[in-house]
Amino acid sequence: MISFTKNKSAKGNDCCFSIVIPTWNNLKYLELCVNSIIKNSAYEHQIIIAVNEGVDGTKKWVENHGFDHIYASSNIGICYALNACRSLVRTKFIMYANDDMYFLPDWDVPILEKINELTDYQSDIHKYYMISSTLVEPSGDNPCAVIRDFGTDIETFREDDLLNEKDDLCRNDWRGSMWPPNVMPLDCWDLIGGMSIEFHPGMYSDPDICRKMWEAGVRDFIGVGNSLVYHFGCKSTKRVRKNRGRKTFIQKWGITPRTFTERYLLRGRDMSEVADENDLPGPSDFGQIVKRILSCFGNK
């Protein structure tokens, strides 16, 4: 049975983004993440922490600092955690971040500029979108990230080198915003119903929430190339028992996550490219039918 408590601080509402950070006994990374937001943001943001277990001192640390938070005595995963944090949000924007991330200086400035580009304040037209920072990762082949090694853990983290080389890490804006840290209007979050709990504890919940946004008519999934966040990588997910999210996604949407992220979202591609919606494979596509059938027989 899932049970948790909520704690809302008495702080004011004059913040830009509400940044929700799920954490699971990962205090040293959480401290680095939160301190980087406080130190390196150009604007003030609401920080909301979803504490899972917190037996490593996380619960006490969060309470002592007065952060808005929920507390669950067991690990409830990111889907339940993010949904549970919704009622604590004080701003018009909800952002999801991992606890193993370090936000570089002024990361929030180009994101807010991009939001302003998408919003016509004179006519009060507010578009729906998902906007991500660009991750800097020590290894891998993520087409949305900049691959540069500044440390694989806190012990080997070269913060000064990262800050000194910040300007050389920027890239052009890209398509396919999906992974955290990402931000969307709170109205959009409410429209699509937040995270889908059938993906508990969270694997493949990222493409799923984007697919729900796509169904609602959202087409702006934008990665901002000069908003940089260093990502140590999967410090919590390596410890969790994973759900079979790929199978769930295929059976729910009729297409594979890869088809959606590469053909619909154009993951990692230049902003000049636009998906031809008349040529997108759907549930009736033969290849997708075969993969959907295979998923029913236990394929991951």
Any key phrases for this structure?
single chain, 13 strands, alpha/beta, about 30% helix, two-stranded antiparallel sheet, about 20% strand, eleven-stranded mixed beta sheet, globular, about 300 residues
Q: How would you describe the overall organization of this protein?
A:
With about 300 residues, the chain is α/β, with parallel strands linked by helices. Helix content is about 30%, strand content about 20%. The protein contains ten helices and 13 strands. The protein has helices at about 25-40, 60-65, 75-85, 110-115, 160-165, 185-190, 205-215, 245-255, 255-265, 285-295, and strands at about 5, 20-25, 45-50, 70, 95, 100-105, 120, 125, 130-135, 145, 175, 180-185, 220-230. Strands 1, 2, 3, 4, 5, 6, 9, 10, 11, 12 and 13 form an eleven-stranded mixed sheet that branches. The chain has a two-stranded antiparallel sheet with strand order 7-8. The radius of gyration is 19 Å and the shape is globular. The model has no long low-confidence stretch (mean pLDDT about 90).
